[in-house]
């Protein structure tokens, strides 16, 4: 076999690029490497003759234009500009024979185009979220209870309870059974008055407006303050789709079919259920698992766009996996609604809540708040010894 002609092998020499030129001002710069020679005739080699016939090739040692490299003067995380096509690299084996056709020269020229004033650019600051959660349609609401006392007949169950539930925060109500947590929660959206023997004193203010005012409609109060119960309660004969939009009919809101479709997808997404049920929206809601039914109830509550969401032990009957999904959903929803949750799970209160209120009722006395404040402070360094004993499992 005839040995390959060494003269045919490509010769690549390093090309110095000057770095001491004046810097160009930076706005949005795209750098492109382009071959110095646009095209070259292919080399055709004759192994028997040891020679080749081709058009003259440019020298691989062709001079490179003296051009400064781009300098980034503005610190950015992401810089987008019009994409430029880069030449495809060619990998040449040193033992290849006959030599491949030279598709690009070893000499490159680097250049910086004119300022890209007409191109769409975007600079995203460090730490920002490129895909933020949807903004709420209304400002986040503050819910405030002032001197709430409650009775069932002659038995007093709550005594002058005052609590401010901050906007866009998760407030956990903790305490042993029978101390009035769930009763207090029902008072917050006027469900306490549905019991014939029940009565109450005090006021509940939503952004400074008393929800028990005679001038305020009951349906308006419950539309703005939604409720999710301990036991999942979807309408079993209704489809998943109809369960979500059921609240629209109860509040008298009219929507087109496309609006309902968008609403169902949005609410199921927020409740963390869309990917699991999107292919069976017309199947009965009662056919879902317990955790899925609870998330369906959350989606149904979100469909009427409440400003406050009350949750009465929403995970007490669920397995750990479903509980984790519900907790993640609550944390995401806190960006849109103010959340108040009753829980007996101290670890859950620590995981999801921002603020905490500890209810306690001595035997034969009405319930009240012993201590309230930041969740971390309540669990790490409570001021009342009864709070310390309860959060550390010494009673309850």
Describe the structure.
It is a single chain. By secondary structure, the protein is α/β, with parallel strands linked by helices. The protein has two domains: 1-127, no CATH class; 143-391, Rossmann fold (3-Layer(aba) Sandwich), CATH 3.40.50. Helix content is 23%, strand content 21%. It contains ten helices and 16 strands. The chain has helices spanning 181-187, 218-224, 240-251, 257-270, 274-277, 290-302, 320-333, 346-352, 375-380, 385-391, and strands at residues 32-35, 44-46, 51-53, 78-80, 108-111, 122-124, 143-152, 155-165, 170-174, 198-206, 209-210, 225-228, 308-312, 338-342, 355-360, 368-374. A six-stranded mixed β-sheet has the order 12-13-14-9-15-16, with helices on both faces. β2 (44-46) and β3 form a beta hairpin. α3 packs parallel to α6. The longest helix has 14 residues, at 257-270. The protein is globular.
Set out the fold topology.
Blueprint: E1 32-35, E2 44-46, E3 51-53, E4 78-80, E5 108-111, E6 122-124, E7 143-152, E8 155-165, E9 170-174, H1 181-187, E10 198-206, E11 209-210, H2 218-224, E12 225-228, H3 240-251, H4 257-270, H5 274-277, H6 290-302, E13 308-312, H7 320-333, E14 338-342, H8 346-352, E15 355-360, E16 368-374, H9 375-380, H10 385-391
Parallel strand pairs: 9-14, 9-15, 12-13, 13-14
Antiparallel strand pairs: 1-5, 2-3, 4-6, 7-8, 7-10, 10-11, 15-16
Helix pairs in contact: 3-6, 4-6
């Amino acid at each position: 076999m005839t040995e390959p002609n060494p003269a045919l092998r490509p010769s690549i020499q390093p090309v110095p690029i000057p770095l001491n030129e004046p810097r160009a001002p930076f706005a949005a710069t795209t750098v492109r490497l382009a071959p110095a020679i646009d095209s070259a005739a292919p080399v055709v080699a004759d192994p028997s003759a040891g020679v080749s016939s081709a058009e003259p090739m440019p020298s691989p040692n062709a001079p490179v234009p003296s051009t400064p490299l781009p300098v980034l003067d503005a610190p950015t995380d992401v810089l987008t500009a019009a994409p430029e096509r880069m030449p495809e690299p060619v990998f040449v084996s040193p033992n290849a024979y006959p030599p491949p056709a030279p598709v690009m020269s070893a000499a490159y020229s680097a250049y910086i185009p004119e300022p890209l004033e007409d191109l769409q650019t975007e600079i995203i600051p460090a730490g920002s979220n490129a895909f933020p959660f949807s903004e709420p349609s209304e400002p986040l609401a503050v819910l405030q209870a002032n001197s709430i006392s409650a009775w069932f007949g002659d038995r007093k169950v709550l005594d002058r309870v005052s609590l401010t539930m901050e906007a866009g925060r998760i407030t956990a109500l903790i305490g042993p059974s029978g101390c009035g947590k769930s009763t207090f929660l029902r008072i917050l959206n006027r469900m306490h008055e549905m019991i014939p023997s029940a009565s109450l004193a005090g006021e509940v203010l939503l952004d400074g407006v008393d929800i028990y005012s005679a001038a305020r409609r009951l349906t308006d109060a419950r539309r703005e303050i939604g409720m999710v119960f301990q036991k999942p309660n979807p309408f079993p004969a209704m489809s998943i789709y109809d369960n979500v939009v059921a609240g629209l009919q109860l509040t008298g809101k009219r929507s087109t079919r496309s609006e309902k479709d968008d609403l169902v997808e949005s609410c199921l997404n927020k409740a963390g259920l869309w990917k699991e049920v999107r292919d069976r929206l017309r199947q009965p809601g009662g056919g879902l698992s317990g955790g899925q039914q609870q998330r369906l109830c959350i989606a149904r509550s979100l469909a009427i766009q409440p400003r406050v969401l009350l949750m009465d032990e929403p995970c007490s009957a669920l397995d750990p996996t479903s509980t984790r999904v519900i907790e993640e959903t609550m944390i995401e929803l806190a960006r849109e609604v103010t959340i108040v949750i009753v829980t007996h799970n101290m670890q859950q209160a620590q995981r999801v809540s921002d603020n905490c209120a500890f209810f306690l009722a001595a035997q034969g006395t009405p319930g009240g708040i012993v201590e309230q404040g930041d969740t971390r402070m309540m669990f790490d360094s409570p001021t009342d010894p009864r709070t310390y004993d309860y959060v550390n499992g010494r009673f309850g």
